């Protein structure tokens, strides 16, 4: 058998990208609800005040909120043994600081988890997949305010207690390292809920790439998230010692573009700053040495990293390292190198790789490499790939079929790479593809960038009836799961 018997097979979504129902049953606004959709070349835009005529993709998304039964049945049809989804913090604490949780929100996730249980699907729950309550941004200044750590813990305690017998796998913050990959506004706002007053109160649309951001504040906010994550791990184990609680890193694997030692060193720096910084804090429980150098050289005042917090980080290390993997990038000091569009950042173009329509370079071998590197760095920590997928324009044929061979090819390569990594001895416990059902893209806000095995009839011009249909990749993934990765 190529994959272990207990290997978790499934897919991953985020509440803000699939649920819709953005003001139903007591829910209030979260960060993504304030963002307009962009297109292939235009990033999402922040709009300070709601505009009824504007298109906010998360407001309806793909209507999972009302269609979760149909959707989970479709996922079960592929043989999923796990399903990664996030709890939308604002459904539970609509203002972020409410005294009591919102029962309607809690009841919704009870129903979702019960539906999963019906099919023997293990939920893998992200506590915060960019869904920071909007009032936490405006009233508290996001995670740069230490009080928000307590608000998050109250939320974590509420849901972990409520679902302690329904959910075993938990992830604290989605892609906690994105503020390091891109020190600009999108990641500070998405990841940390940090935005300057002036931008919050502006009266015009602001492209996310243009949001102002103060570096010192970003590192303080990120530190508070580390502390919140570590305290959540501790708390979770008190609630149920069987919980497996992980971090979640947007793993940006990089290669030096040339054998120039300067490129090799530049690549080392990128790897350390983008990946290993957050990984080390959450797996090893301490800030790595290279970060102290970075802080020193960049004039960051580190007095916010107190002795007490360092103890908390040590006591709250994660049970598993989970990560997203879509592409790889090259790093070079040579300025004439051709650039490519990375997930959140710009890298140099790898001449050996093809790219998606969004410029994401496809690299299955890089996944085997990444898994081996991570297993070497964190030998005692199980790994899980919790996002991997191919965003593409899909075409519905006249007879309703969708021939997404490119997606099958992408997954085949990456599953092959995981099988190889298992042979290498890597402790890999599961795999969830990104967006098993089409949803709204996080980076562009588009419906057109589709990831699913299941197509959703919904488009960026607001048309479509939300109906679902299977793509060719649906039966293919079903076969892969049924054969434990044997039949690719
Ligand atoms: C990751 C996010 C997801 C998801 C994915 C694909 O960064 O965790 O939320 O959206 O990327 O990105 P995009 O939607 O921009 O194609």
UniProtKB/TrEMBL annotation:
Keyword Hydrolase tagged: yes
InterPro entries in alphabetical order: GH, GH_1_N_CS, Glyco_hydro_1
GO biological process, one term: carbohydrate catabolic process
Ion transport recorded as keyword: no
SUPFAM superfamilies hit by this protein: (Trans)glycosidases
GO CC entries: cytosol
Molecular-function GO term, any one: beta-glucosidase activity
Coiled coil: none
Keywords: Glycosidase, Hydrolase
Family per record: Belongs to the glycosyl hydrolase 1 family.
Record's protein name: 6-phospho-beta-glucosidase
Organism of origin: Faecalibaculum rodentium
């Amino acid at each position: 058998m190529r994959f272990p018997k207990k290997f978790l097979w499934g897919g991953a979504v985020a509440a803000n990208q699939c649920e819709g129902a953005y003001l139903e049953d007591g829910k209030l606004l979260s960060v993504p609800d304030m963002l307009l959709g962009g297109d292939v070349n235009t990033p999402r835009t922040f709009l300070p005040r709601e505009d009824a005529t504007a298109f906010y993709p998360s407001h309806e998304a793909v209507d999972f909120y009302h269609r979760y039964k149909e959707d989970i049945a479709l996922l079960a049809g592929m043989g999923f043994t796990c399903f990664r989804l996030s709890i939308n913090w604002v459904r539970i604490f609509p203002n972020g600081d409410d005294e009591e949780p919102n029962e309607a929100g809690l009841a919704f996730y009870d129903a979702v988890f019960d539906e999963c249980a019906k099919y023997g699907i293990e939920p893998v729950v992200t506590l915060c997949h960019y869904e920071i309550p909007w009032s936490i941004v405006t009233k508290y200044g996001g995670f740069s305010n230490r009080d928000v750590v307590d608000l998050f813990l109250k939320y974590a305690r509420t849901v972990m207690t409520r679902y302690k017998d329904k959910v075993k796998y938990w992830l604290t913050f989605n892609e906690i390292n994105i503020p390091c990959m891109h020190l600009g506004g999108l990641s500070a706002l998405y990841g940390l809920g940090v935005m300057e007053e002036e931008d919050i109160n502006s009266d015009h649309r602001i492209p996310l790439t243009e949001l102002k951001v103060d570096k010192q504040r970003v590192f303080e906010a990120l530190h508070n998230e580390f502390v919140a994550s570590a305290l959540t791990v501790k708390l979770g184990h008190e609630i149920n010692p069987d919980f497996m609680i992980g971090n979640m890193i947007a793993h940006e694997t990089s290669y030096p573009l040339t054998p120039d030692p300067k490129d090799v060193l530049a690549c080392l720096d990128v790897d350390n700053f983008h990946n290993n910084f957050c990984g080390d804090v959450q797996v090893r429980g301490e800030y790595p040495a290279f970060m102290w150098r970075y802080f020193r050289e960049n004039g960051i005042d580190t007095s916010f990293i107190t002795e007490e917090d360092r103890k908390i980080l040590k006591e709250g290390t994660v049970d598993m390292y989970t990560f997203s993997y879509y592409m790889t990038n090259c790093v070079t000091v040579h300025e004439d190198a051709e650039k490519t569009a990375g997930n959140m950042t710009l890298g140099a173009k790898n001449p050996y790789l093809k790219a998606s329509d969004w410029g994401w370079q496809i690299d299955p071998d890089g996944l085997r490499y990444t898994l081996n590197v991570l297993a070497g760095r964190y030998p005692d920590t199980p790994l899980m790939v919790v996002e991997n997928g191919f965003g593409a324009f899909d075409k519905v044929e006249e007879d309703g079929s969708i021939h997404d061979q490119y997606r099958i090819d992408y997954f085949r390569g990456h599953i092959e790479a995981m099988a190889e990594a298992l042979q290498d001895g890597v402790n890999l416990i599961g795999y969830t593809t990104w967006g098993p059902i089409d949803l709204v893209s996080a980076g562009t806000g588009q419906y057109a960038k589709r990831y699913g095995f299941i197509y959703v009839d919904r488009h960026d011009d607001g048309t479509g009836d939300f109906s679902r249909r299977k793509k060719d990749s649906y039966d293919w993934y079903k076969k892969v799961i049924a054969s434990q990765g044997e039949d690719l």
